[in-house]
Amino acid sequence: xxxxxxxxxxxxxxxxxxxxxxxxxxxxxxxxxxxxxxxxxxxxxxxxxxxxxxxxxxxxxxxxxxxxxxxxxxxxxxxxxxxxxxxxxxxxxxxxxxxxxxxxxxxxxxxxxxxxxxxxxxxxxxxxxxxxxxxxxxxxxxxxxxxxxxxxxxxxxxxxxxxxxxxxxxxxxxxxxxxxxxxxxxxxxxxxxxxxxxxxxxxxxxxxxxxxxxxxxxxxxxxxxxxxxxxxxxxxxxxxxxxxxxxxxxxxxxxxxxxxxxxxxxxxxxxxxxxxxxxxxxxxxxxxxxxxxxxxxxxx
Length: 300
Prior knowledge:
The protein is mostly beta strands. 12% of the residues lie in helices and 34% in strands. The chain has helices at 36-46, 170-176, 196-204, 274-281; strands at 2-9, 14-16, 53-57, 61-65, 69-74, 77-82, 85-87, 91-95, 101-108, 111-116, 119-120, 150-154, 182-187, 207-213, 217-221, 238-239, 244-247, 253-256, 263-264, 268-272, 288-293. It has a 7-stranded antiparallel β-sheet with strand order 7-6-9-4-1-12-11, with no helix packed on it. A 7-stranded mixed β-barrel has the order 13-20-17-18-15-14-21. α1 (36-46) runs antiparallel to α2 (170-176). The longest helix is centred in the N-terminal third of the chain and has 11 residues, at 36-46. The radius of gyration is 20 Å and the shape is elongated.
């Protein structure tokens, strides 16, 4: 048994595994990593890894462990040091007892991932160790990690598979994605209830990622006023999926993310395709975003 001690943790740093699926009918979203491609890549870099990762946010994380272990870190572009010595990013590394790992803010990305050749020994909740901060479920007491937390890591009996031909990695997700600043979407179930001029402006306008973002959703600034003056629609509350773009009552477009609420009654104009959702999650506040409507027929 190896114990990892968190020395410093960015806000909203959590434990995440593949996710808590098939629970939406009970009002619980899947959670899981905000950037699934980066999470998978960390496991592939190790060859075999425990399912549970530490997902840290833009300010990074520092930790030590009281025994030897292997770790991989991916996602975004962060500054990595081990015992004060700079390392390249992303990285896989063999750590010795009491090595100090420091991950500091870098130029790109909101989320990074640490996976280990061990499993975090916390009990799954409803089949997953993923943390849902919105409802305080799973992970370490349903909360974000903080300085002083200690995580026990043990040998695991069911490792994730090594990289196999055709496996989707962080790099392949990005190759499939559209050029920088352009995010593909499928028109949503309420698109036809919005004025045609509004839909046309949506696909032509530039939005901006606002500082109001977390694992539940990302609010966008709308400098062109695409949704200004939108009349309140009478809608039945129905199921939501990650990537849905809903328009709040004040006209603010919001992209729902991994800890989304189970249902919603605001109009949803479009849904980001899964191949581009990882890249969207990594866009920092101030980044310009343009949406490109596509159809299922012309997706690769």
